[in-house]
Sequence to fold (491 residues):
Amino acid sequence: MTEQNEHLALWGGRFTSGPSPELAKLSKSTQFDWRLADDDIAGSRAHARALGRAGLLTDDELRRMEEALDELQRRVDSGEFAPIEDDEDEATALERGLLDIAGDELGGKLRAGRSRNDQIACLIRMWLRRHARRIAGLTLDLVQALIAQSEQAGNAVMPGRTHMQHAQPVLLAHQLMAHVWPLIRDVQRLVDWDARIDASPYGSGALAGNTLGLDPQNVAVELGFSRVTDNSIDGTAARDLVAEFAFVAAMLGVDISRLSEEIIIWNTQEFAFVRLDDAYSTGSSIMPQKKNPDIAELARGKSGRLIGDLTGLLATLKGLPTAYARDLQEDKEAVFDQVDTLEVLLPAFTGMVATMRFDTDRLAAEAPTGFALATDIAEWLVRNGVPFRHAHELSGACVKIAEERGQELWDLTDDDFVTVFADFLPADKAPQVREVLSTEGSVAARRGKGGTAPERVREQIIDAKSKAESLHTFAVSISDGPAYRPEGSLN
Ligand code: ARG
Fold:
């Protein structure tokens, strides 16, 4: 290693002194951006071939350059090569590694026609596209666990709530599937997003493009992109696509948090709707009887962190002049943290969901209570010709009587119904309202599209399964580019 390489900087020609220790410490990013090393080396391979095609590397030089990059990758994989204190960022470290292997003469040719600005803009895209596929896969595992629970729930009923108050009985499967659809949309968002981020900024240079006649389309394809960014300034400066990923990650956190809150409540002694498996619950260090829903609580807590990563990134981007500025270095930790968080959280959360067990007898007993069938009375009256405004009042009158007596609606006598409905229905008709005063009758009646009737819920389960199945191709799709190795050693 030469003296110069020990303190390698990618800039410095015009400087009389090196950076102050304070600046070096502030500027350094290898502690978090080293995980882009695989993608950087893949980018360097593609760039070397572009230099070759442009006649800026001879065939022999290109061959030796590729061998040197292979060796560099090997050293990175084995841990033999890693950033040192003086390396400003992953690009600086890898340049040092390459010069060490290929020598200054050949190694020094690779930087022609590229800048760390287009390089880093490209690397974050490559890294995110790969991890978006993993997160999609983990989310689909959760979708699958919820669908399995829904299928197992069959026609089990539970109290449906609005404002947390008993509202109308619903199928347990219907309530669970209400969490499946947002998760499917999150995966769809990743697929949509991927089509937008599928453009390589390589060739944008520092901001204005390159003068060397390099062909960026081939580089793009080699790195798994189908096209090149249209504007080199935008190519180096745009982080809306990083922020869009961060939104999907935050939304995923919020969606999981909503389900967590439900599970935490269902798991209380008062509700006792669900029991969590021992392997997915924790105990208390002082209270021997405790069994806590920590996974759900951590999920709820981590959603705050996922939102914070998004808002922090948006705040960084706001007000930046449009071309590269060093502020953009701050894009990475936000999404790295989100990816790390989700890749640990989702498998644990899915395990908890897959193993939780519902007390369906208790759910069924609670389903119709709290006058949850009041709407059914009103709608039965409507079917018998009573205008809804009056039907609503008559049903409310039934609730009032039951409440005063401390009874439920089905405890009212035939005489009660005859009296309450007297202005609208004949006495022989009124007691027939009982036909809707059962949970089964209530849920079966809601057979409009998306409703809680068992056949509708079965339909949506089939539909969700086929949507999840088609999204699976995205989750397992790994582009041909060398950086798209399914299990990168650094990631
Ligand atoms: N480490 C920088 C980043 O992550 C790379 C680009 C630095 N470019 C520069 N001109 N200083 O954004």
